[in-house]
Amino acid sequence: MTGAVATKPDKPVTGPAIILVEPQLGENIGAAARAMLNCGLTELRLVRPRDGWPNPKAVSASAGADWVVDNAQVFRNTREAISDLHLVYATTARSRDMVKPVYTPSGAASEIRKEIALNRKVGILFGRERSGLTNHDVMQTQGIITAPLNPAYSSLNLGQSVLLIAWEFLKTADTTPEIDAFIGDGELAPQSDVQGLINHLNEELDAASFYRSPEQRPTMQQNLHNIFARARLTEQEAKTLRGVVARLAALRRQLKS
Amino acid sequence: MTGAVATKPDKPVTGPAIILVEPQLGENIGAAARAMLNCGLTELRLVRPRDGWPNPKAVSASAGADWVVDNAQVFRNTREAISDLHLVYATTARSRDMVKPVYTPSGAASEIRKEIALNRKVGILFGRERSGLTNHDVMQTQGIITAPLNPAYSSLNLGQSVLLIAWEFLKTADTTPEIDAFIGDGELAPQSDVQGLINHLNEELDAASFYRSPEQRPTMQQNLHNIFARARLTEQEAKTLRGVVARLAALRRQLKS
Fold first, then answer.
1. Which chain B residues contact residue A94 at CB under 8 A?
2. Distances in Å between the alpha carbon of A22 and those of A49, A62, A122, A155, A184?
3. Do A160 and B160 touch (CB under 8 A)?
4. Residue A10 has pLDDT above 70, yes or no
5. Nearest-CA distance from B26 to chain A in Å?
């Protein structure tokens, strides 16, 4: 029964290996490396790249991720490329007549994150640009990953395909809030600043005979106050707006005098 | 107060407009169009494409999405490109010293999906390949979208950037299960099939003197049963495995006779 449990890797596993099976264009290998590094992945494996290896086009297309390209390992076939891995997924746009669990990219990413936390080595296969993975490739894996893209146009570029999967993997460990009210170096203004601004504005509008009828005054004032209340002004912005009101009022006074 | 509410579009809005501001390479415009169509988006707008318009390189890079490229609208500046929209987001990798909410791609996608359900026209700005959006572009928008990528290497290719946002938008309306146990045209086997298989196997293993000691027999049988139980066999697979057992046993008998 030896060999039933693969040996544990020497150093901690941090992400899945990206395995490109018989990639045709160096540009796509470079784009895949760039997408990987964008998402914090660094282990690139290549099965029989069509134009040989190393490939200068892969290096130039990788932009700053050339060290990912330089460290790529090259294998003679899929079997050898995955032999040290514990779990392997196959990306494919087509459904296969093969009994196998099918994951969305985010579903697979969650699974892979859990497996990696257990220090298991995981790899993801990406197929040839024109024809994808063969059934012989897919057969050797534990699961299929299919992105639910536009059914009328679901074929992704190789680099794009790697980006989608790597991005979903990155997100499983990301804690960035979905919305963050960035206010730069400033501080949100207290409501007293907003009240001061609107009082100032109301005084000057009265002085400028802005309201054509007394009836419209309360509603209009409410609407104006509401605009500035919901804008979540910073202290600096409230000051700037008071300056604007003061300056416009001063010009009006000069014109009238 | 006219103009405070923009006019509603004539036909239902289905997705955000993708607006490339001064894109440099036709290849990237084509890659953006392809990524858009992969995710069901079709409205492409261009602000002053560097190499003029139309651009044959954009068409060839778009693969089958050439009609998205052909239908792209071209504008002289960002202001004109967004004038009919109700809400505009700016994609940027750098933080800006500008008071503005910052969304993750998925956070922005949720917001945009809600706004579009209200039939509001939404656009997303993508900057120049080398320098991104200017502060003048960003100023005109209601929110910033920043993907929380690898901080040491966060610069995405233009087509990749469009894909990330379009993908997150697609996902807000996607109901694909995260894992789906695909079994092709077959049916899962009832447990009686698994029991029949394991009984058959056990009989043949006894006949072949597989167990070196009587003590190991119950544990080993349990382990073997467990392997086939957790494999979630289809009816066809259970039949195939019974055929395998029968054939191996038959060969053994022939050898012994």
1. none
2. 5, 18, 19, 17, 48
3. yes
4. no
5. 16
**What's the gap between Cα B65 and its chain centre?**
17
Domain membership of residue A246 as a residue range: 191-256
Instruction: Read off the pLDDT of residues A96-109 as tens digits, 9 standing for 90 and up.
Output: 778 889 999 999 99
The residue of B149, B162, B232, B233 whose CB has the most chain A CBs within 10 angstroms, and thus the best one to mutate to test that interface, is B149
Which tens digits make up the pLDDT trace of A196-216?
Answer: 999 999 999 999 899 989 999
Output Rg (C-alpha) for chain A, integer angstroms.
30
Read off the tokens for B254: 């022939």
Question: Is the torsion defined by CA of B101, B103, B107, B110 positive or negative?
Answer: positive
Cα–chain center distance at A38: 9
A chain contacts of residue B34, beta-carbon cutoff 8 Å: 157, 160
In this structure, what are the phi and psi dihedrals at residue B162, rounded to the nearest 5 degrees?
Answer: -65, -40
pLDDT range class, residue B59, cuts 50, 70, 90? very high
Confidence of residue A119 (pLDDT cuts 50, 70, 90): very high
- Residue A97, token pair as written in the block: 């007549």
pLDDT of residue A8: 56
Task: Determine the residue among B99, B171, B241 to mutate to test chain A binding: the one whose Cβ has the most chain A Cβ atoms within 10 Å.
Answer: B99
CA distance A172 to A175: 9
Q: Summarize the confidence of residues A172-196 as an average pLDDT.
A: 89
pTM of the entire structure? Answer: 0.90
Quote the tokens at residue B139. Answer: 């100023």
Report the run of H or E that residue A73 belongs to, with start and end.
strand A73-75
Interface predicted TM-score of the whole assembly (ipTM), two decimals: 0.89
Q: Which helix (H) or strand (E) holds A162?
A: helix A158-171
What is the number of domains present in chain A? Answer: 2
- Are residues A60 and A160 both part of a single domain? yes
Residue of chain B minimizing CA distance to A158: B160
Q: Please identify, among B143, B174, B205, the residue that sits at the C-terminal boundary of a domain.
A: B174
Query: Is B37 within 8 Å of chain A by CB?
Result: yes
Domain end marker among B174, B199, B222:
B174
Using DSSP's 3-state secondary structure scheme, residue B3 falls into coil
Which residues of chain B neighbour A231 with C-beta distances below 8 Å? none
